[in-house]
Design brief:
heterodimer, A: alpha/beta, eight-stranded mixed sheet, 8 strands, B: alpha/beta, binds guanosine-5'-triphosphate, binds magnesium ion
Chain lengths: 276, 291
């Protein structure tokens, strides 16, 4: 009888509040609650642990429904653009991904293509020396597409496996900056035997604006996956569920700190457990 | 927009004398959704909607405006009331140099804001100095030095010193060179990182700032409340700078933070250039949150 009392109207409100508090957004939170309700009713779940577990399983199901990041193209070099709005952790994440790939035996090269922001190039160069990998850079204020071009030529000459392109932060609402990114992408596409790739960096503290970011960046780049940064804070990064629900983009990595190895492959089970 | 959504809710209202509780409940559901979609914290939304409901129920339905317009006006006025109404001016010391300290999460826009503040204050006739107290992030000092060079403002930095020691030495140098305002750029940090929060406490106790500003990204979601309360509790701050307002984030975090801390949003950063800093406009942000 006490167990039966676990399913109160307040229970559904609190579960939905937990998802909203995680930045999943109104529509996505409602969807997860709806799915969990079906499961709870059909499986006759009554105890509080079972109820929580039902929600966890629905979050996992939703995250898994966005699919796996696509297989990388077989051609070498690979070129991965690291893109996103200002301050989300692109430069740091590019370094972390480079370090991770290098540990796995990849020969990597960094392209310091943020030629705009003060000390943008220096920051990438410092990270490259910590990873112990080559970096291609030009003068501050130079054409970032030229940096992309040179880095691919250098990669071909040095038999590099993967080029990581650090791009300048840019708000998706700035048409000229999005066009600049599109141009960098086309330069890479022309120069490569295969296709370039792009990882969109999303800050875990971001609210629903993350959906607009993903939508617009997805229009100029082929965004294969998301790197969700700053998950070592108190924010839950739930906007990636809203993004996945609308655009189907999966999360590949999560950033959990400011150090070179503070990057983990995304695990939906771990994520769902942290939520509930 | 909120207006459109409420028009739908009130469409069935026909010449009744007052807004009934049932009419208003339907409207409150729409308002709650709009505010959550705008990233206002869900607990703040609850309080806000309860408050608005009290004001809306029993409102006479006048002939000159629609019920929807009436409710929108109540919501808008309530929001402008919360967002504004407090001292927005920066505080300066009676004896120079004044110290302004910038704090906040990683990547929120502090270093850029420091340079922008220097430009703004110089335009007001002051003589600023910047202090590079972020000793952790690769090329953070270079970033501030590059900005300082662009705007011709000196940047104080001393190798191999702790953040506290850098700030102490900078203040001595500012006094020596007759600078009347010192702007401290600190490292981005998590509000849950005890050691890093302690560093701010140590800086403040050694060189008490007349003005501490929490720098927050306008796209911050529900977590804005946790961040603001933690910084308030552990470090204390006088006001907020809301950055990246040149994007299309609705900015609900502004309402959340003002609501729970009572601290004013003093400035809005509206771009990446050094001139892109302006006074915070509560009415504009209220319209933006309401979509
Ligand atoms: N705690 C924490 N901090 C992070 C993480 N990822 C990045 N950061 C920090 O976030 C800040 C911004 O990181 P950057 O790599 O410069 O971000 P960015 O997107 O390249 O910035 P812009 O190029 O200026 O747009 C730095 O202080 C990083 O150390 C993370 O996973 N956790
Ligand atoms: N569009 C836009 N970009 C901004 C604004 N303010 C800062 N930025 C950008 O946001 C990014 C981060 O700014 P920083 O000043 O490095 O942020 P920070 O808080 O010092 O970062 P950490 O020191 O790593 O914590 C940079 O790319 C800035 O150019 C703004 O108002 N609008
Ligand atoms: Mg960067
Ligand atoms: Mg900084």
């Amino acid at each position: 009888a006490a167990a039966r009392k676990a399913i109160t109207p307040e229970f559904w409100t609190e579960a939905e509040d937990a998802l909203i508090a995680a930045d999943a957004g109104v529509a996505c939170s409602a969807r997860i609650v709806e799915n969990a309700k079906k499961r709870i009713i059909s499986e006759g779940i009554r105890d509080i642990e079972g109820l929580k577990d039902a929600f966890r399983r629905e979050v996992v199901a939703m995250l898994e429904s966005f699919g796996e990041p696509p297989e990388p193209p077989p051609e070498r070099p690979r070129v991965i653009f690291i893109a996103g709005v200002n301050g989300v952790g692109k430069t740091t994440t590019a370094a972390k991904i480079g370090f991770l790939l290098k540990e796995k035996g990849n020969k990597i090269l960094f392209a310091a293509a943020d030629t705009f922001r003060a000390a943008g190039i220096e920051q990438m160069e410092m990270w490259a020396s910590r990873v112990v990998a080559p970096v291609v850079s030009h003068q501050a204020g130079g054409d970032p597409a030229a940096v992309v071009y040179d880095s691919i030529e250098s990669a071909k000459a040095k038999s590099i496996d993967t080029v990581l392109v650090d791009t300048a932060g840019r708000l998706h609402t700035k048409k000229n900056l999005m066009e600049e990114l599109g141009k960098m992408w086309r330069v890479a596409d022309r120069q490569l035997p295969g296709r370039p790739e792009a990882i969109l960096v999303i800050d875990a503290t971001t609210g629903q604006n993350g959906v607009s970011q993903a939508r617009i960046f997805g229009e100029v780049l082929d965004v294969s996956s998301i790197a969700l940064t700053k998950m070592d804070g108190s924010a839950k990064g739930g906007v990636v569920m809203a993004i996945g629900m609308e655009l189907g983009i999966p999360v590949a990595y999560i950033g959990v700190g400011e150090g070179i190895s503070d990057l983990k492959p995304f695990d939906p089970e771990q994520y769902a457990t942290a939520l509930f | 927009s909120l207006s459109d959504r409420l028009q739908g809710v009130f469409a069935k209202l026909r010449g009744q004398g007052k807004l009934t509780e049932k009419d208003v409940d339907a409207a409150m559901r729409e308002i709650r959704m709009v505010l959550l979609e705008a990233d206002v914290n869900y607990k703040v939304v609850k309080q806000f909607v309860e408050h608005v409901k009290e004001r809306a129920v029993g409102e006479g339905v006048t002939k000159s405006v629609t019920p929807a317009q009436q409710v929108v006006k109540i919501v808008y006025d309530e929001m402008v009331d919360i967002l504004g109404g407090t001292q927005q001016a920066l505080k300066f010391a009676s004896h120079p140099p004044s110290v302004i300290m910038l704090v906040g999460l990683q990547g929120s826009g502090k270093t850029t804001a420091a340079a922008k503040l220097a430009v703004m204050l110089r335009r007001q006739g002051r003589d600023p100095m910047l202090v590079a107290a972020d000793i952790y992030r690769p090329a953070a000092v270079e970033q501030l030095q590059t900005l300082g060079g662009q705007i011709d403002v000196p940047v104080a930095y001393y190798r191999h010193k702790s953040a506290v020691a850098i700030v102490e030495e900078a203040l001595r140098e500012a006094t020596r060179t007759g600078r009347d305002v010192v702007i401290l750029d600190t490292a981005g940090r998590l509000h849950i990182d005890e050691d890093m929060m302690q560093e701010l406490v140590d800086i403040k106790s050694s060189v008490p700032p007349g003005e501490s500003l929490l720098v927050v990204d306008a796209m911050t979601g529900q977590d804005a409340v946790n961040v603001a309360l933690a910084f308030l509790d552990k470090v204390d701050f006088d006001g907020i700078i809301l950055t990246k307002m040149d994007g299309d984030a609705r900015g609900g975090a502004a309402l959340s933070m003002k609501s729970v801390t009572g601290k004013p949003i003093k400035l809005a950063s509206v771009g990446e250039k050094v001139n892109d800093l302006e006074v915070f406009h509560p009415d504009r942000v209220a319209s933006r949150i309401l979509g």
